[in-house]
Design goal:
2-enoyl-CoA Hydratase, Chain A, domain 1; eight-stranded mixed beta sheet; alpha/beta; about 325 residues; 14 helices
């Protein structure tokens, strides 16, 4: 059944019209009309339209899907995959940052450290989490938790979903660039396995600060880039309306990044995107994380750190 409160993107208009028609027919059917066969026919048509549409998304359309307000967020993955989650707050230097969630819990019975950027799903929660854009204290909290996990031999799981680090004056005054660099360094220095998952947007240094991992997984319709398409268009052409062209040229899709060896695995999304079946997407992600941790489980601490460092050195040499 079509979700009556589902939010449709502009390019999904053909599917939205079919879903609306299905809802109208179901209302008639509830009143006694014998139109079950017609409903089934249009449902099949809607499924085919949705499949065909999502099989040929442009990079800009993928960007829109990655930003979909109903896409499952960090807190949804934690709720679905982590038991006994205990959040920890503060960087022990300035304050806490709700844009960066961090803590410890159990993933399929094993202890893990979880770091994640949370955008929020309502107006109130988006403001609380600053739309997922972390300040320096968020990255310093991440460093604190990574160092704690390393001390106790606990793997680190990073859930990435941010347009980028917060660019405000206060954040710059408190050393935003240095905090991001320290967080990236902390990732590289870990002697425990770390796995990062790009859930929606992986924006700039704000993403790489917790995504410098042994394994980088990425959802099929997520995007991962040094800058947003709008930002690139504003800088290159001084025209933000050229964001679509920028999205294509930046090579920000999972398919492009897998081809370049920047990510390791693409996680297939349900037809129509992760937001159409969040439970299925979360389960698929859990299976992929478990497989990555098993693959890394045979490596000793020195080999884990060496593998991670070599991975990123190879990317630089290959693309430099």
């Amino acid at each position: 059944m079509a979700d009556p409160i589902r939010s449709y993107l502009d390019f999904e208009k053909p599917v939205a019209e079919l879903d609306s028609k299905i809802d109208e027919l179901r209302t008639l059917a509830a009143g006694g009309s014998d139109i079950g066969e017609e409903i089934s026919r249009i449902e099949d048509k809607a499924k085919i339209a949705l499949h065909d549409l999502y099989a040929n998304l442009t990079p800009w359309q993928k960007t829109q899907v990655a930003r979909h307000p109903q896409r499952p967020h960090c807190v949804d993955y934690i709720a679905g995959l982590i038991t006994e989650f205990t959040p920890l707050a503060g960087d022990r230097k300035f304050s806490d940052d709700d844009a960066m969630i961090g803590g410890f819990g159990r993933f399929r019975g094993e202890s893990v450290c979880i770091l994640g950027q949370e955008k929020g799903s309502t107006t109130e929660s988006r403001l609380k989490h600053n739309f997922g854009m972390a300040r320096p204290e968020g990255y310093r909290k991440a460093v604190r938790l990574m160092e704690m996990a390393d001390r106790f031999g606990i793997p680190v799981l990073s859930l990435v979903d941010t347009a980028g680090a917060y660019p405000g004056i206060g954040a710059e005054e408190r050393g935003q660039a240095e905090a991001i660099a320290r967080s990236t360094e902390a990732c590289l220095n870990l002697t425990v396995p770390n796995v990062a998952v790009i859930l929606g947007e992986g924006g700039s240094g704000g993403a790489i600060a917790i995504a410098t991992a042994n394994r980088v997984l990425m959802l099929e319709h997520a995007v991962y880039s040094v800058i947003s398409p709008e930002g690139a268009a504003s800088i290159l052409w001084r025209d933000a309306t050229k964001a679509q062209e920028a999205a294509t040229n930046l090579k920000i899709t999972a398919q492009d990044l897998a081809r370049f060896g920047i990510i390791d695995t693409i996680l297939k999304e349900p037809p129509g995107g992760a937001h159409r079946d969040s439970a299925d997407m979360i389960a698929r992600t859990g299976d992929a994380i478990a497989q990555s941790l098993r693959d890394l489980g045979s490596l000793d601490p020195v080999a884990i750190r060496t593998q991670r460092r070599q991975k990123f050195l190879d990317i630089g040499r290959r693309l430099g």
